[in-house]
Amino acid sequence: MLIYGVVNASPDSLNADSIVMGPDTALARAQMLLSQGADAIDLGGQGSTDNATVVPWQTEWERLEHVVPALAALGVGLSVDTWRPEVARRALGAGATMINAADGMQTDEMWQVAADFDCPIVVPFLSGPNPREMEHVRTDPVGTIVDFFEARLADADRYGLRHRCIIDPGTGFAPSNWPWEERYLYQKRVYSNLDALRRWGLPLYIALPWKDTPQHWELMEIVLRQQPEYARVHYPDRVRAMEQRLGLS
User: Which tens digits make up the pLDDT trace of 100-129?
Assistant: First the structure.
């Protein structure tokens, strides 16, 4: 499994350990993540949680402008986590190698950026236009997620990019005010049925849990046993240790 370690240039990430304030601290965190077992870096400049202040795309890019080339110089994969095509285009031009599309690739503008750079695209499931406007999934989540990806891959086909898509069930996002117990059951249902997302023959990408609770560890184990191709991770050493314990490394 290829791990993307998380670096957040947004000041309001829920995971304080991931927050950096410029290229120097970003480089130090990235080097630490790589030393702990990450293979690549996922960089974001706009928080997607309820507590995050939404800033103009220009401000998001200002946070990333000098960080992207600093991390690109490490010579490892570098994804840009954004829902804005303006930011994705600039980040790819500055050295990023993959789009982690926080809009779920639901606009032609984002597909055009991906086509222009012919880059891999993490396509997450969203139940709304972006992570901040998601709705609760009240029906069977697996069927709902499958239907979403059928539509997104039809979009990908218009741009000749199906083979560039990486499937993300979107469990790193959640509607506002969703109680943890509901979210836990939702994630457990999705994670226990990841095989349903392999019908298209495309790799899977999972934003792994990072909180230290029995339920979060249980969810991580369910995911790791199914051996997705990619993961987005805050603490790579914890994930690598569990892989080794499960005999997957």
Answer: 999 999 999 999 999 999 999 999 999 878
Q: Which CATH architecture has domain 2-245?
A: Alpha-Beta Barrel (3.20)
Strands 78-82 and 40-44: parallel
| Most distant pair of Cα atoms in the chain: their distance | 45
CA separation for the pair 94, 244 (Å, rounded): 36
Domain ranges of the chain: 2-245
Residue ranges of alpha helices (H) inside the chain are 23-35, 57-64, 67-72, 85-93, 108-117, 141-158, 180-191, 214-225, 236-245
Give SS3 for 63.
helix
Q: What is the pLDDT of residues 81-102, one digit of tens each?
A: 999 999 999 999 999 999 999 9
pTM (whole model) above 0.85: yes
- What's the one-letter identity of residue 139? T
Q: Which two tokens stand for residue 100?
A: 């982690």
Tokens of 33: 């993540």
